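Our consortium's second objective concerns turning raw sequence data into structural hypotheses that experimental partners can test. To show how far this objective has progressed, the report includes one record in full. It was chosen at random from the queue rather than selected for favorable results. The single chain below, 41 residues long, was entered without modification.
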Amino acid sequence: MKPVCDEIVQTADKYSEPGKFTVLAGYEWTSLVKETTCTLV
C-alpha cells in the first residue's frame, strides 16, 4: 500500500504548470492529534 503523502505529491506534480500554476504539497503536524496529514495548498 502506498503512503497517502506520496499520492498527494504525485497529484501536485501532475497539476503544476511552471510559470502558470504552482501546487504546493504541505505537511501538517499538531501535537493534539495522533495522526499527521499531508495537504495541498
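The partners drew two points from this record. Strands lie at 25-28, 37-40. Residues 4-15 form the longest helix (12 residues). Both points have been shared with the crystallography group to help prioritize constructs.
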